Amino acid sequence: KKFNVAVVGATGMVGNKIMEVLEERNFPIDQFYPMASANSAGKKVHFMGKEYTVEELNEHSFDKDIDIALFSAGGSTSKKYAPIAAKNGVIAIDNSSTWRMDENVPLIVPEVNPEDLKWHKNIIANPNCSTIQAMVPLKVLHETYKIKRVVYSTYQAVSGSGVNGYKDLEEGSKGEPNKFYPYPIAFNILPHIDVFEENGYTKEEMKMINETRKILHDDSIRITATTVRVPVFYSHSESINLEFEKDFDLDELITLLEKTPGIVVKNDIKNLQYPTPLDVAGKNEVYVGRIRRDESIDSGVNLWVVADNIRKGAATNAVQIAETLIQNNLI
Ligand code: A2P
């Protein structure tokens, strides 16, 4: 069977990558509808060997016979249009943060909690990029050793801010002033992603904390996070410190990660093998290295986790959600 698919935000960085990933994975598409704002209506895009004309998103966009709409056009667009899609029987897979913590909306990493897709009501949320890559290793470790506490420290690429962030690094490295971030990002790091909240955390930090609990179905896990923007174009890196309830054997833990679908373990320090953003850019998997015991506590481990934020952190995960719906006859 083939499906009618819309990409909302088809002219954006993630929307473009979604189209690339759909093509690479030979997604079973019948009709294809690229959508964006009025600014882009009429533009041509190439997809699966054909040329398509970008349509303006409006209240009637989902009157058509569409099976799946992949949204990546900002929170306010999703807030308004995902319910319109859902009401018309279109499954909206949404990359914004708008619906993630809604109790009627499953928040999905396909390798981690595909069972939550069963209760979807036509809106499905793609988690935050930093959360997605952490969930793939944390799920199996939580199942096996029960995670008590998580300390996340992130090193996030500028592409996570879209085209404007990318330009600030590109032009900043040539000596141009910053236009998007509050301070230069070239040759600098900023301990500030998204807006600050009342408690002194950033919204990005709170997304990691809340989304982790929702995806792992465990509100008892204690979590803290510091999220940092670094002068890297693609791939987020994370230092993740975990404290377990149970004891563990380090070799067994490494084997568990090696056997987990979606993970590549690159952990051979003798040969200087560990993941870096440059070598992970363009990959769909989550890379894990620097796996070592936290010797300051009874049972804990440190992980270095790197993934392409535009692929596994956004586009690849969204397309995998669509594939999982099809495999499980949930569409
Ligand atoms: P457009 O290019 O027409 O502005 P990015 O995050 O890379 O900036 O991309 C954002 C994407 O979301 C673009 O495709 C953009 O379309 C789209 N978009 C932004 N606002 C709207 C809107 N109100 N309706 C539809 N698409 C939108």
What CATH calls the topology of the largest domain is Dihydrodipicolinate Reductase, domain 2
Spans of at least 5 consecutive residues with low confidence: none
Largest sheet: 6 strands, parallel
Total DSSP E strands:
14
Number of helices: 8
Structural class: alpha/beta
Strand order of the largest sheet: 5-2-1-6-7-8
Bound molecules: adenosine-2'-5'-diphosphate
Q: What value does the average pLDDT take?
A: 98
Q: List SSEs in N-to-C order.
A: EHEEEEEHEEHEHHEEHEHEEH
Amino- and carboxy-terminal Cα gap: 11 Å
Estimate nothing, just give the exact number of structural domains.
2
Tell me the name of the CATH class of the largest domain: Alpha Beta
Please tell me the CATH architecture of the largest domain by its name.
Answer: 2-Layer Sandwich
Strand content: 15-25%
Rg over CA atoms, rounded to whole Å, is 20 Å
Give the helix level as a range of percent.
Answer: 25-40%
CATH homologous superfamily grouping of the largest domain? Dihydrodipicolinate Reductase, domain 2
What global shape is seen? globular
Topology:
Elements: E1 3-8, H1 13-24, E2 29-36, E3 44-47, E4 50-53, E5 55-56, E6 68-71, H2 75-87, E7 91-94, E8 123-125, H3 129-145, E9 147-155, H4 163-172, H5 203-216, E10 222-226, E11 236-244, H6 250-259, E12 263-265, H7 277-280, E13 286-293, E14 300-307, H8 311-327
Parallel strand pairs: 1-2, 1-6, 2-5, 6-7, 7-8, 9-10, 12-13
Antiparallel strand pairs: 3-4, 9-11, 11-14, 13-14
The structure holds adenosine-2'-5'-diphosphate.
